[in-house]
Amino acid sequence: MMFRRLALIGTGLIGGSLALALRERGEVGEVVGYSRRLDTRLAAERLGLIDRPADSIAEAVAGADLVFVATPVKAMDAVLGELAACLPGDALVTDGGSVKGAVVERARAHLSAGQLARFVPGHPIAGRERSGPEAATADLYRGHRVILTPIEENRAEDVARIEAMWQATGARIERLEVAHHDHVLAATSHLPHAAAYAMVSALARLAERYEVFRYAAGGFRDFTRIASSDPVMWRDICLDNRDEILVMLDHYRAELDCLRDMLESADGEKIEHYFHEAKAVRDALYPVAQANGANPVSEADETGR
Ligand SMILES: NC(=O)C1=CN([C@@H]2O[C@H](COP(=O)(O)OP(=O)(O)OC[C@H]3O[C@@H](n4cnc5c(N)ncnc54)[C@H](O)[C@@H]3O)[C@@H](O)[C@H]2O)C=CC1
Ligand SMILES: O=C(O)C(=O)Cc1ccc(O)cc1
């Protein structure tokens, strides 16, 4: 057993799924959960994500040797502030936030030098558009990537323990530098979410929106699935990674302008070539339908294809 007691701060999709996965593998003794809202804590207990709910962060982390912070990223400011006052000396801390630079800044602002050394930032690249405790599953991370962004204060053996913890969930672990993580994720995750929200808004603002949505095809559904994601979580991600996302939005807008120009000049050859190139890129990324939505590149690696 890797950890005696896990304290979950945030008992929703990401925290709850980690607890279920570690328990299923017998890697954790007891799971105690704190979330801001009482009903989420009680739901987490009812659903078997946690053994018992705690009424405060201090109560949750008492006696814990692992603390997992899985709240929206801006809420981590207050959470880390409270943790600084009550963290047991031997506890390791990690998180699942979608942005790393802002979270590391918050950790540096609140934690003591000793506590900071034991904070190993991380980000599972797995999730879904429905969050909350009800959405948690033991296999959420299986076959998916988890990115750790260790900071220079971390000790190698602590990073290795967090890596082993994620490995137990069936995930594949990679390490990236903090700023590089935020740059890459702005492109691969944050821009698509922003684009999906904007696409739905664009159609919703049309006078004929009812008719438009009535005849919406699978393409609209596929393109916009992630616009059902949690607005608070995505507000926080957008603000916390604002500079990188602004650059990516401009990059995407330039591409839309480019397509618009081709269409305005009715240049069929150019349009076809443009679509061919994009299709080739996507077909290479997703050669077969992915049953569980796992990253196809990682699955291909695992099966040796
Ligand atoms: N939903 C997804 O697909 C993914 C989310 N993430 C990240 O994981 C984190 C958690 O996301 P989810 O589990 O999806 O959200 P969720 O909404 O399912 O769970 C969030 C939990 O945090 C609690 N919470 C909110 N504000 C709080 C506060 N101020 N103090 C204490 N608890 C508070 C909520 O009560 C809830 O228990 C976020 O930082 C998100 O960016 C990372 C990868 C994927
Ligand atoms: O729903 C989806 O497909 C996602 O893209 C989930 C997701 C959301 C946020 C992350 O930081 C990582 C993964």
Automatic annotation (TrEMBL):
The keyword Protein transport does not apply. SUPFAM superfamilies: 6-phosphogluconate dehydrogenase C-terminal domain-like, NAD(P)-binding Rossmann-fold domains. It holds the Pfam family PDH_N. Residues 4-293 form the Prephenate/arogenate dehydrogenase domain. It comes from the Bacteria. InterPro entries: 6-PGluconate_DH-like_C_sf, NAD(P)-bd_dom_sf, PDH_C, PDH_N, Preph/Arog_dehydrog, Prephen_DH. Keywords: Oxidoreductase. Gene3D superfamilies: 6-phosphogluconate dehydrogenase C-terminal like domain, NAD(P)-binding Rossmann-like Domain. The keyword Ribonucleoprotein does not apply. Transmembrane segments: none annotated. This is Prephenate dehydrogenase/arogenate dehydrogenase family protein.
